[in-house]
Design a protein that fits this description.
The chain is mainly α. The protein is built from 13 helices and 2 strands; from the N terminus they run H-H-E-H-H-H-H-H-H-H-E-H-H-H-H.
Length: about 425
């Protein structure tokens, strides 16, 4: 394929969106780890960068919907494929522009919903009301409530168990050594289930539930036993027993954070490389198709963009999730990350378009709620909620303006 100016603009737009995804979404996995002291900011950037890149390239979406989540009906653009090309570029720039502003303001917003809002704006401009799949839009709006509430509920329940079984006991360090292997097994079970199911589905189609459950269970048992042996070697030092217990919890929190980062790279990279794949397909065939294969170099481009975003602006939103909503310790951070990951996996299994950001913020709030409403900074939560509500209309508005400008400036293909 000849590298045209339009293709170069499309590649830049996709890379720009990937950088913004890395900058804003890294807080989903690393914000609580940095705030609790489990990871330094530099180490968090390295871990998040590696896990996001691996998730994007190795577990990324190899067959991506050209119209993200089925928002736009491609039949309305079949007579003029060039309209879809300009539209996808405008979608990337419009969504990326809003995420850039949100990141500057230290607001954790959903990059998926930013893309959805941008697609709605383009769809309304290019095809009118009938060009939008409004049932899907309704499901996305429903997910605004389900994913944060689900994450908050799981995190609240988990931290309540941790508090009763470990924190409020006479000897929390001993209790952590006794109960810790159970939590390690729980995390590994969730990770194992998600990875085995995802890989099996991609290689062999829909896997049998018992097959996935058995492998995940085996991983959990082996990991739990290994952690039991590992924790048995630790003895109480000179520090306060509570501090020693929190220190003992840091590796578990890092494990859960790495998993969220891996999942983020695998799932959200489609927000940046999906439209690029659509543009490539239209340029090659001059047809609008529902699914297109994503070249490995495009996945790599998205992965690199994620890493750059993480290493430059990632710290801004990490501060909001990790420090400004509620006070975070390793045990609280673990509960929040596990709650967010579990909520996302469960909703994804049900086919619901959820946001990792919404689940992560909800989970941190859930941990705070376990300590009482006074432990939560309601002012910060209010600002975040407003940013969620305006994401769709602002991204749509940006996209409409950019599309009109591109249509006037870019040459015909």
């Amino acid at each position: 394929m000849v590298v045209s100016p339009v293709l170069l603009v499309a590649i830049f737009a996709g890379f720009y969106m990937a950088v913004n995804i890395g900058a804003n979404d890294v807080a989903n996995s690393m914000g609580t780890s940095v705030a609790s002291g489990a990871l330094t900011l530099r180490k968090a950037v390295v871990v998040a960068g590696v896990c996001n890149f691996v998730g994007a390239v190795l577990l990324g979406v190899y067959v991506t919907d050209t119209i993200r989540k089925g928002i736009i009906n491609p039949a309305y653009f079949a007579p003029n494929p060039n309209v879809l090309i300009y539209g996808m570029i405008a979608v990337l720039l419009g969504a990326g522009g809003w995420v850039s502003i949100a990141t500057y303001l230290k607001l954790p917003v959903s990059t998926t919903h930013s893309i959805v809002g941008a697609l709605i704006g383009f769809g309304l401009l290019g095809a009118g009301m009938q060009g939008i799949q409004w049932k899907v839009v309704g499901a996305i709006i429903l997910s605004w409530f389900i994913s944060p509430i689900g994450g908050a509920g799981i995190s609240y329940l988990l931290f309540t168990i941790i508090r009763r079984k470990i924190l409020d006991t006479t000897h929390p360090f001993r209790a952590a050594k006794r109960v810790g292997p159970f939590f390690v097994g729980l995390v590994l079970f969730v990770i194992g289930f998600a990875v085995v199911y995802g890989v099996s589905k991609r290689l062999w189609g829909n896997p049998h539930f018992s097959y996935v459950l058995g492998i995940a269970g085996a991983i959990a048992i082996i990991g739990g036993l290994a952690s039991y042996i590992f924790l048995g070697r630790y003895a109480l030092g000179e520090n306060d027993e509570y501090e020693e217990m929190e220190e003992l919890s840091k590796p578990l929190q890092v494990l859960s954070a790495a998993y969220v980062a891996l999942a983020n790279g695998a799932n959200d990279v489609a927000n940046s490389i999906g439209p690029i794949a659509a543009i490539l397909a239209v340029m090659e065939t001059q047809k609008v198709t529902m699914q297109v294969p994503v070249p490995i170099w495009v996945l790599g481009l998205g992965g690199i963009g994620l890493v750059i975003g993480i290493s430059t602006w990632g710290y801004r939103v990490m501060e909001t999730i990790g420090k400004k909503i509620t006070e975070v310790t390793p045990t609280r951070g673990f509960a929040a990350e596990f709650g967010a990951a579990t909520a996302v996996i469960a909703c994804s299994r049900l086919g619901m378009p959820v946001s990792t950001t919404h689940a992560s913020v909800g989970s941190v709030i859930g941990v705070g709620m376990a300590r009482g409403i006074g432990a939560i900074n309601l002012k910060v939560v209010g600002r975040i909620a407003i940013s969620w509500l305006v994401t769709l209309p602002i991204s749509a508005g940006f996209t409409i303006v950019i599309y009109m400008v591109l249509s006037a400036l870019l040459p015909q293909l």
